[in-house]
Amino acid sequence: MVPYTPLRYSIYILCIKVLFVACKTNNSSVIIDYVTSLSNKQQLLNQNGKLLLNTYEYIEELQAKIETLRKIGKHLHQPQLAAKGREEEFLSNPMNSLSLIRQMHADWTHVEKLMEQPVGQKQMDYIRRMNERRPRLENVEEAMVAMHRLKESYWLNASDIAEGLIDELQTDGKLSPLECYEMGLLYFNGSLYHKAIEWLETAKELMDKAPSDVYAFLGLARSNISHLLARSHTALGNLQPARLVLQAEPEFSSQVEELVAYFQENKPKGVKNEQLIRFHDTNAYLCSSLYKPKPTRLLCSYKTSPSPFLRLAPFRMEQIWEDPEIFVFHNMVSSSEIATLQRIMEKVMHTKIDDLEDLRYYQFHRTVRQFWMPNPDLPQKENLLVRRIRQRFSDLSDFYISDAYLANMLRYGYGGHYEGHNDFLNDTIPNIDDRIATIVLYLNDMPSGGGTMFPTHQLTVQPEAGKALLWYNLKLDTFDFETRNLHAACPVKIGTKWAMTQWIHEDDQMFTNPCLKPSKNRKY
Q1: Domain match, 76 and 106 both
Q2: What is the mean pLDDT of the chain?
Q3: pLDDT: is 515 or 439 the higher one?
Q4: Residues 470-489: pLDDT tens digits?
Q5: Domain boundary among 88, 106, 133
């Protein structure tokens, strides 16, 4: 590695600018999951490392050329040094005259050719070849919206996030002024000017705390932040704060009133971004570290019936809500089974999104990667594992589960969430076989964030590896809707949330669990 010098730093800045220009266009049509897929993010990190090595090679080639030019310049500078202060005497010497004439005729031609020689063409070609794997704008927007969900659902400050503090959890990750500015721009374009101001002020504070020429080469000057910050204040009608921002910026200090007037005449169009949803305060509380589960005096027991299997290996059952009943079952799967399931899911979800239908379910109310099992495209051994787990679901719920209704394999990345909803279907789709109950099997621990929240009950269940959560979507005596079990998935703070969901359908219970009373609010 080349030792650090001021010259090397200047060349490094130049190389960053060249790298960004070379990578400016990306025509890849394949959308790759960089938010939830750990393997894709690992590849992205490896790619970044390769690009850095490529950049350092470019720096070394530039430095080699500069060193050659410096040596030639030192040689060609000798006549100037020798003639300084005695030009007439120097030029009267025939040797000096010959040397000067020959040098001006021949040597500078070679210097010109050397300067014209391209440097780093190999490295530039490598960058272009790597363009296909670079994140697209959609990936960046998805990551920023995920950050928005974290901020809103856990009542975070932009300045804390930038320093790596997430809901009292200090991480080693930090944001630069570049990311904070982009977050501010996202909110500005979504007409959320108060939130834009918070991020833009954080961007300015970070830039002032550690000023660097790198940001300007990467397309962000302090004046860019001030300009958008003043526009945000003006959009809210806060003209005096806008003036103060502009006055503090040397580039704008002489034209403050003109800019404020221009901002007023050209106000933003007020387009809303539906992805920047606002979380209800109750939901935010239930997801945050402020929530502490209340101790209950409900049932904890071993489930030993009705299946003969349960007499040999009973399930540890905990009733966590009485009306309507909600249960938790512990140690439903072994650590080896969990590892196998995660390996299957990572393998399938590593597939390009365009190649696997249903893999990427990304809408405003839910952000998750998913697929279904048993799956005929997967090995029989892997499908058998899922069938064994589904049989345990049947045992713990006392309901029959047929192969007609597959298990939903889920992976939530950071910020991954599911807004409040009920799992029954019949209120929107008449005459359809509905979901009596839901079982969620958690496949990893999530000490904080990513919980399953029931706003009506003021209850949040935190994921633990091997824990299964059971609740009812229909009342068991009438099959009417159980609206009180409205639930949501809190956004994931750190890491990845793995889960397996199984819905239990009423058609499967036609001859084993008929409803006992007439329905009141079902559409048949």
Answers
A1: yes
A2: 85
A3: 439
A4: 999 999 888 889 999 999 99
A5: 133
Helices (H) and strands (E) in the chain, counts: 19, 15
CA distance 466 to 496: 15
Sign of CA dihedral 89, 94, 95, 99: positive
Q: What domain range includes position 364?
A: 295-509
Tokens (6 digits) for 219: 């397309």
Q: How far is CA 208 from the centre of its chain?
A: 26
Q: Do 150 and 76 lie in a common domain? A: no
Tell me which residue of 483, 475, 485 sits closest to 515, measured CA to CA. Answer: 475
How many CB atoms within 10 Å of residue 286?
22
- Co-location of 114 and 231 in the same domain: no
Distances (CA, A) of 25 to 53, 185, 483: 21, 21, 49
Q: Are 412 and 492 in contact (CB under 8 A)?
A: yes
**And the tokens for 318?**
């905990």
How many residues would you count in the chain? 524
pTM of the model: 0.78
Mean pLDDT value across residues 282-290: 80
Q: Determine how many CB atoms are found less than 10 A away from the CB of residue 372.
A: 12
Higher pLDDT, 418 or 232: 232
Residues 119 and 151 in one domain: no
The pLDDT-based confidence of 11 (bands split at 50, 70, 90) is very low
66: how many CB neighbours lie within 10 A of its CB? 14
- In whole angstroms, what is the distance from residue 229 CA to residue 260 CA? 12
Q: Is 492 helix (H, G, I), strand (E, B) or coil?
A: coil
What band does 294 get if pLDDT is binned at 50, 70 and 90? confident
CATH number of the domain to which 379 belongs: 2.60.120.620
Q: Predicted confidence band at 102 (pLDDT cuts at 50, 70, 90)?
A: confident
Q: Give the tens place of pLDDT for each residue, 329-345.
A: 999 999 999 999 999 99
Lookup result for tokens 């939530």: 412
How far apart CA 129 and CA 186 sit, in angstroms, is: 30
Residue 223, helix vs strand vs coil:
helix
pLDDT digits (tens, 9 = 90+) for 335-380: 999 999 999 998 888 654 434 444 445 556 777 888 899 988 889 9
- Look at residue 20 and tell me if it is in a domain: yes
Q: How many domains does the chain have?
A: 3
Residue 76 lies in a domain: yes
Hey, what amino acid is at 458? Q
3-state SS, residue 171: coil
Query: Which of 133, 159, 184 is the last residue in one of the domains?
Result: 133
Residue 96: phi and psi, rounded to 5, are -65, -40
CA atoms within 13 A on the CB side of 413: 25
